Amino acid sequence: MVSIAPVRYTHDLIKESGYFAINALDESMQNYAAAFGFKSGRKADKFQNVSYSDAPNGSPVLDGALAFIECKVVDTFTAGDHTLFIGEVVAAKLLKENTEPLIFHWDDYF
């Protein structure tokens, strides 16, 4: 499940494609978390100069990601000012071993 505000560009992409992927980042990828988490895809091409490949159904998988999970949207719900996209896992893979995941700490970004 992912929770996305309808005003976000990603919301439109998931709604149109019917799929989403979650990329698990390793601790060396904080710059990716900042770029993808705090910039609007309507205003900036987040994938410019970023290497990635496609999961089986076309969802982007960042090169260097620790793992990914691709899901097919099977239901949606409105929750306050967000849409909950409920997904069924259709593909997943551990891409790196022996590395630590990136853990979000608000103070690391502000």
Task: Explain what the structure shows.
The protein has 110 residues and is of the alpha+beta class. Helices cover 15% and strands 37% of the residues. It is built from two helices and six strands. The chain has helices spanning 9-17, 30-37; strands spanning 2-4, 19-24, 52-54, 60-62, 67-79, 82-94. Strands 1-6-5-2 form a four-stranded antiparallel beta sheet, covered by helices on one side. A two-stranded antiparallel ribbon has the order 3-4. A hairpin with a 2-residue loop joins strand 5 and strand 6 (82-94).
In whole angstroms, the N-to-C terminal distance is 27 Å
One letter per element, helices H and strands E, the order comes to: EHEHEEEE
How many DSSP H or I helices? Answer: 2
Shape: globular
> Which residues sit in consecutive blocks of at least 5 with pLDDT less than 50?
none
The percentage helix is 10-25%
Whole-number mean pLDDT: 89
Number of domains: 1
Taken as a percent bin, the fraction of beta residues is 35-45%
The biggest beta sheet, please? 4 strands, antiparallel
Question: What's the count of strands?
Answer: 6
Structural class: alpha+beta
CATH architecture: Roll
CATH superfamily: Electron Transport, Fmn-binding Protein, Chain A
Q: Going across the biggest sheet, name each strand in turn.
A: 1-6-5-2
What oligomeric arrangement do these chains adopt? single chain
CATH fold field value: Pnp Oxidase, Chain A
CATH classification, class level = Mainly Beta
